[in-house]
Amino acid sequence: MQQDSFKALKILHLGITGGLLIFTAAMLFLFQMGKLKPIDPTMERTLQVVAVLCSVALLLIGFNLFKRKMMEARNSTGSGETRMGLYRTACIIWWAMIEAPGLLAVVCFFITGNYAFLALAVFHVLVLLLFMPRKENIIVLLNLNAKEVEQLEGKN
Q1: Contact yes or no for 84/5 (Cβ under 8 A)
Q2: pLDDT at position 58, please?
Q3: Which residue windows are transmembrane per the record (predicted)?
Q4: Which letter does DSSP use for residue 36 in this model?
């Protein structure tokens, strides 16, 4: 029996979001407990510019890529499984483009000790949560019929 593609996508999203959240929380905890100290606080200004530029650039590029790939999936004449595969690929790319600047922000926090970087990382966690996959939305976005939904749920 085939696995539920909708649940698999949710689990993947949870892993990506949870990973960033745990990494952020672990760094914060280690700094609060005094186990870690800033490596080079003098890099703060440079890293602020780099982190913000990366965040803006990757969010814009990622969203445009996601829209394009999502439309390819929607307009595909393939089966529901094929369209779901294309959509899954679009989501993975989009989520990676959201997560990467968040990870960079946590690393910048590690280097400088500036809590503004943690705020940026939390922003990226919130953006990831905003783009959580929802079964109803996927069905509408991919124009899936009832039979295709059953197949993707692993019931058929």
Answers
A1: yes
A2: 98
A3: 12-34, 46-66, 86-107, 113-132
A4: -
SS3 141: helix
∠ CA 155-153-93, nearest 5°, is: 155
Query: Is the pLDDT assigned to residue 1 strictly greater than 60?
Result: no
Contact 88, 9 (CB under 8 A): yes
Q: What is the DSSP string of the chain?
A: ----HHHHHHHHHHHHHHHHHHHHHHHHHHHHTTS---S-GGGHHHHHHHHHHHHHHHHHHHHHHHHHHHHHHHH--S-HHHHHHHHHHHHHHHHHHHHHHHHHHHHHHHHH--HHHHHHHHHHHHHHHHT---HHHHHHHTT--HHHHHHHTT--
Run of H or E including 40: none
CA–CA distance, 35 with 137 (Å, rounded to integer): 44
